[in-house]
Amino acid sequence: MESGDNLSTMECRFCGERFRLPEDDSEGNLPRVLVCAHIFCTTCLHTFHHRGVISCPECEVESALPEGGVFALQEDSRIIGLIYTSKVNKMKRSKDGSLNREKQKLTTTKDIGGDAEAKVQVDIVEIKKSVDEALARAAESVAVLDTIHETLTVGLKQQVGRERSRLEAEIKQTAGKALQAVEKWQDVQLSQLEARFSSSQEEVDRVQKRRKALEIAMQVAREVRRVPFLEQYCSLDKVVETLEAPVDTQSYDMESITTGSGLSFVFLSENLNQTLTLSLKMEVAVPKPLFKSPPRSPQQSSSGKKPSPKVTRTNAASPQPGSPEARGSCCPTPRRRSASGGALHAVPKELPAKRQETAAPPTGPQLANDWRIHRRKKNRQFGNKRNVAQWVVLSHVVNPSHFYVSYVAEKREREILEKKIDLFCCADGCLFGPSDTVETGATVFAKGGAGLWSRARVLEVFQRGCVEAVSVCPAGRLASIRVFFLDSGFGKSLDVHTEEETPESSLKAVNDHLRKVEEAVKVELGYFAPQAIRCSLKDLVPYDPTKGWSAEAKLAFLGVVGSAAVEMRPMGQDRDSLLVDLRKASVDQSSDAPISVREYLVFIEVARFYSPVNLGMWPLLFHPPKYPEINTELSAVVSHINSPADFYIQLVDNMEFVLLSAKLQDCYNATTACAEEDLTIYCPVMEQACVARYEDKLWYRARVVGHPGGRKVEVQYVDFGNKKTLPVSDLRKIKDEFFALPSRAVRCCLSGVSPLDAETWSDACKNRFIHLALQKLLTVVATGNVPKTEPLPVKLFESGLDDIAELLVREELASFKEGLESAGAAEEFDVWDPPLDVGSAPEGGNAPDRTSSSEEKEEEEEFQLRLPDQLKDLKVRVSHVNSPSSFYVQFAHNDSRLRRLCELVEEECALKELEEVVWEADMFCGALVDGVWERGRVCSGAEATDFIEVMRCDHGNKVKLPVGNLRPLPSFLTGSLALECTLSDIRPAGGCSTWTATACDLISFHLTGALAVLTIKEVTDEPPVPVTLFCSNQKGALVNFTDFLVGEGLALKERKPRDAAIETSTETDAGSPVIETQKDGSDGEKRIEQTPPAFASPPPPVSTPKPAPRTIMSAEKVKTGLYRPPELPSLGPVQMSVSAIGEDGVIYTRTQNAEGLLQQLRQRIQHSMDSLPRQKPYTWKSVQGCAVIGPDMLWYRGQVLEVLGGHVKVQYVDYGLVENIPVVHVHPTLLCADVPQLSLPCQLHAIKPVGGRWQRDAVALLRKLLLNRCPDFRVTELPSDPRRPLTVELYLDGLSLSSILCHHQHASMERGSSPQEGHADTSPAALLDDWDIDIKDLRGPEEPMLGPFIYPDLPPERERFGVSVKHLRTPNEIFLWLDGAAEEEIGGETLDGALTRVNADVGALQPLASFRQGGPCLAEYSDGKFYRAKMLTFSSVSPVCVLVQHVDFGSEDTLPTSR
Question: Quick check: pTM over 0.70?
Fold first, then answer.
């Protein structure tokens, strides 16, 4: 057998030729191995390969050839060894045979005369002996082969079982992929089917067109019949003709709907040895009739609906009976070819194997999915990942929160299960007998709705003669039973009726409805999981939770899902239900996005998303806005206008809201996907505070004010007042930190006015009010107190204009309320400015009765430059800079007048056509500059160019514009609002008469567009006007720009002799050619005019009363005390946590009691400061305790340490931190003054920092070691003042903090104390332990452990002191002795005396045995004497040498240990 096996092994399986080794005359035919482990000869492999690939003839696995071709394939060494061994044995046998034959010839020749019979007997004995030995060896071989055979047989069986399970899972998964691909391909093909019936569609369109014409004619005829005179407006003959025209059925091609599409689908199957290829191919042919005659009822065609022929799907696309799809496996979409004439292939691939479970799964439907997950976990050893999405079909629906599904991939498994159940139920062993009972919770077979047997669990059992349900009932006495079908998910009550009361008839009735499940059957069916999985749509509740799920919701759920397969996405588990979302494929073929069933039910408003809220609690609301005080003028911006009786303003008293807006964007734009899901709002409630996105894609604070439906919500932006309808997806939950600031928008109404009809505001009035006030900075005065729910009555004033309410009344867009007109006017004049033209009214005349000429003059002078009465501290904006001697400014109170002027210029010039105008110098014009119409003055006439140089009257700079950008300007708009100025009392530096380019560039860089404070020195006849200008620096302080230029070296102070000044003044008074007069304008301001002198005497004084200037708010004097001092702990060990480390090394701590009080204190502070106090200028010199807004927008208690310009240096009294806070974030008031400050300052005991103060690296080390930790504290000394630091000893894991600082050379121990004294190196906790240790025979340390050297005290800063240089290492590092250090005595002995005493008896000194880094020692110097030193490091090992530093001199030396 072995030789036969060897011969078959040494032959090629395909061609049958023997393998040959290469020899001298032949190449040989060696065996070579493919990837699939099959072996073929080289000759056959040459015939197999095609284009670099060899397909195995046995398994059809393709192997790619290496670069060397067939000869590069691996050779089978085992077969080559057998061939070589066989060849050697053959040669040996041939040689032995020839020797035996020669020997036999010689023996025969010599023994011819011997005894032949004796020889024959000897040969027989030897033959028997050799045969017996061979049989014994064969018996042993047979036993060994039996063992090997048994091992291989068992292994083969196990191997086949494993591979069978794996391949079954792979085939199931591949078949599932193929099914999905076929379904998608089917949808694509059927979606294009309608386009192939173009002729039928044309006939349908013709019918629709004819029907529409008939309907129109019938409508016209009915109207004519009702109103006969309409006949003259229509062609009645044509209408009647259309109505009477019969319908010719022959004119419509009814045969078009009887033909098919000409498409057919062909199932192709190719089954080779190891590959199963399935194909669906679409073929296009000539359309054939589907039936001989058209349908009898053509009404369907006339209605415009197309008949849809059925397309039967073959069974080729479904999985094969032997390859059900594995449940829950990944199903990637197979490759899809072209829809027309293409074919779709599904090729199996290797997937993880599925192992069979030995234990039966639970039978409850709530645990079926868990059982599946447990089964699939075993597949992960091959790296297979379980897909989240699964395809399911509905099996039973109670409501959207309670329904059952079954997996599409288990369809084949359900069919097998049904067949097995039918087979079991047909057997007699499943019939109930007289001795059988029915128990609650047992599993039985029951008939479902279709009359099929299914698995069911018994829920309730009712026995004859019993009213209540029983747990166990004999089968013969069963009256009714309620069961739950495990594979469909619905429950059913079965009544057992029988006409006869005999046991046989009762059992027959029971067996008609039920079958029992035997133990063997239960075990066999235990491998089939319950097919019905209980599910619930996640986060979905009824639209009206008080009424529960409506029938409409159930019908809508069934309608959208239907019987088609849908995609299920598990999202969690709640008790016995899976929380899922079902997604159905979109009907619109242009979109691949599936439809979420949850979102669909919410969209049609039969359900809503669940948002957990605390019952009985109102949602958190924003703090109401801070209302202005009555009769107090404030600056505000109108943010939103609904009408003059309903608008919103924003007070501009601080910058908190600017910081809030920036923080909102940073917080909500930088959220991660996980954090964004936590902030998502699913079901907003009324008045809920939130953050909403606006059209500019920015986030703002808002509140919910309405539910318009359709997953939209109406919100109001609390900081602006406007409302907007947004989708719920644009809302986010608001974080607590954004509740600190109150709402910014204050709802207001115009005081004292009403609509013309006293009911509704006209659109013209609203538009005019919006034009005057929206998004503009106005002055607001509140006129009364109202409840928070009503708008606040206010008056709005724009600088340079009248009251806006009065303006609306004058323009006849509104009216004063009865009895308020005169009072309002009187109040206006009392609060603000005096009446216009008071000084120009004649005595005894009526000031209000102004003529039309005075009104026109007032309108003309409205846009002229007029100086105010007060010429000091005027707020201006620098519009253009030429040099320090020529720059232009605009007064801040003219901003609104300038905007009004631009509007008037645009109205006058924008609509004018271009005219032929000869432009000359100094002509005023309307100029279009950067798209804005402004006033201009021509600098030079237009000559040959098309450009003219124009000076911008209200800005001061010059620009070149095309002639087409100029328009003539009306006379009442001429003038200028820009004042040309010059800095007084300076002149150019360097002796020049003109300013250098550097000076001009510097002043232009700093002043152009800047806000400044200006003081007019004198009013001159000609510009520029000498002024003094103050600007703010980086710290917010006002700086005289004249001094700034002088300090930069670009200007010099102008010095005038006193006599020259007096003489100039006299000359000016005596003989000035032009006398300057000041006329009071309509608004109480001064206007510069130049008038020729009529006489030399000064003008008579004017008796007209001048209006008082507006008051400037002065700094309010406020004084606050300190917070109560902290409560000091007792001496000894105490538990405290470190909250902060000061720059001076002070450690701020809190006790455990203070930690508990801190949480309560924070809540009290936030509740007490529900809104921001109005900011005022304060004198901070008397302020000690204060309230601070921290970086997290929360309030904290603080203490003012120092005032730094626009910042205040504040310490948080409950934390110890010190920060520089802007003034707007600090308020001089005490918060919870009854609570003492919670932080305790502490200092270390008996330790001195290097240099007399803690360095930065030492403070950094303290913060690294102590912050947010609870080390061990021992209070050693209490201060006399409770606000002063405690003296403590501090330990970290039993190690003294003082030792750590000394080790890092940040500090030294004070004289008379060391880390060993007291409890320096012992933890307070260790001191409490009482150990009974006998140390009688223990040896003490050979030498005491000495601490580091103590550094000398440094003199105070900036104090001179004498020194002597001891050592110079580098120019940047020298070692000094302070004068008097050598004479200092310790214990009555100086350092020199101690060294002399030691050197006198050096032999008595003990040798050093401990060489620790930084340790003190005595080291021998080159003069043979010992001096104090400290060890730095080992410089060498052989011999051992130590690098030391002489601490009293600074020099270093390398010494052996003996020195």
Answer: no
